[in-house]
Amino acid sequence: MEELSISRPYLLQADDLTANDIQSIFSRAQFFIDNYKPGVKFDDLKGLTVALTFFENSTRTKLSFELASKRLSADSISFQSSSSSQKKGESLIDTLRTIEAMGVDMYIVRHVCSGVPGFLQANTCGAVINAGDGKHEHPTQALLDTFTLQKHFGDLKGVKVCIIGDILHSRVARSNITVLRTLGAEVKVCAPGTLFPRRLNYWNVEIIEHIDDAIEWADVALVLRLQRERMESGLLPSIREYSNYYGVNFEHFAKKPELVLLHPGPVNYGIELDYNINQYPNVKIQTQVTHGVFIRMALLSLIAKQLKVKRAKVA
């Protein structure tokens, strides 16, 4: 097996990843795909302890990280803020110190507040992986999305990806724009004006106003979940109107069946997506979930390698 590595012993945001880092993660993920069989465990994290520290609810991300760490032979502990001493007033840094004192090496962190993974990384000798922080980023979701596309297209240079939906609040959009561009994809967005930071277009992405134009232009539609709190916040006139103007439906696929569709889940069927589109083979939602486990296995494996090198230098 080729020698693979990444440049940093942590992952806080998509900008931490070079093109070589991304391809190393993809190569390692493919190794796991090719060699994994039910019941098989790899030794990449043997002797290391991983803490799943989720301060915000999660299903797909938490379960896939948990499964990934187990497949790599890690000792893992699970932390839920709802049942922790934070309910009694314990600070975030005190929680970190308590977990760290138990001999934890790696922290998978999801938090409702932007910047928490970076804060924790600055206060620990361990490795922090951002599993989603506020409205900031979700880099492992971008990795699994992009891996899914690379598996489909072979090379992402020049592939046209339109991200559709609530860009304003989406950490998935932020990470995907960075990772996709790093690999040479062309990215545009399609969103209501109230759900896009028009005055802060720091990505310098082009906005496509109409969903039909977006579908016509794109090779890939990456559709975002519309969070239910946005539906009642005054940012949208109504759910029905949003669905009519920005939902991807059966008619779109009937006109362009070669379109590849991704969605980070969970899907609000009947709002973002038509119920009937799952019949198309280029709808990759379940493939994304499968790839998520192997991408996170690859990331944990390569960060563990960096962590061991870092500690060897200190010793």
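the 2nd protein, sequnce then structure:
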Amino acid sequence: MITSIDKKTALVLIDLQKGILQFPVAKPVNEILEKAAALVSAFRKANLPVVVVNVDPTKSLLNNLRTNANAKFTSFPSEWFEIAPEIKTIEGDIFITKNAWNAFTNPNLDVELKKRGITGIVLAGISTSVGVEGTARAASEHGYNITFAEDAIADTNIDAHEHSVKLIFPRLGEVGETDKIIEVLAAHM
């Protein structure tokens, strides 16, 4: 349940890029993108930052782990990294490329948020149990209040999604629907 959103909150969108969106997820991708786009619009209206995160696994140290021996990422076509066109980015957005599960592995994310006095983040994106959860855990360690847009998050594995949403996310922040987040955001501005 969403009870509050900090006045200095940023929207952080995880891996809503063309390459990731090709993977089969347990929810329709168009619904995730629709909800994420609604959040982008609401944050722009509130004059709050939008952080657009993409992943480039080719530079990941995870490529060197034994568990990834058969799944090394070496190259992708350039469009693989492009953000979905439904997410209308603008020049003032914060663009972060990560090489691992959590977006805070790129130190520029914390630097950019702190520079703007951000105390809270709203998280959305793919995939729930990897990029979103990894970023949420790190955001908690960095002291950010976290809100999860449950209907703007999806995973390739429904069991992993449900585990994160029902057991992990409530321990890190508040979980709710996009419409409620937008309503609370508008009431605070």
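The helical segments are 18-21, 29-45, 108-115, 128-141, 158-172, 178-188. The chain has a mean pLDDT of 91.
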